[in-house]
Amino acid sequence: MIxxxxxxxxxxxxxxxxVRPSFGGFIAASPLPLPTPKSTQATHWLGLWEVCFALLVIxxxxxxIRWIFGLMNDGKTPLIGSKQRNIQIIERKPLxxxxxxLLVRCRDTEVLLxxxxxxxxTLCAVDSENxxxxx
Length: 135
Fold this sequence. Notes:
Radius of gyration: 32 Å
Number of helices: 4
């Protein structure tokens, strides 16, 4: 019942949009002005300058927004990410079809992870500074 009413209302709106331009109204009563003749050379260069100006405005807008985000986040823009990489995947060892072992370094700690079917399980954590000093 509700679906039928919604379809009927959509049909009424579409028919009103289709019928309205066919009657003309106020828009059809006033004729459009005729184009004035211009030289093709001037029109060509004018279009090129308009495109270049539009590209310049868009590029400056992008850099301005990036600069504002940099000011708000102490130089770290969230759209681009931080320049400092704190997490690194050192090694990945596949165990089977959808299982693997991952050795991940997060700042000074190395973590051994088990990955299976979209799940990560921490197996053990090793402090890399202590490991390097003992050797």
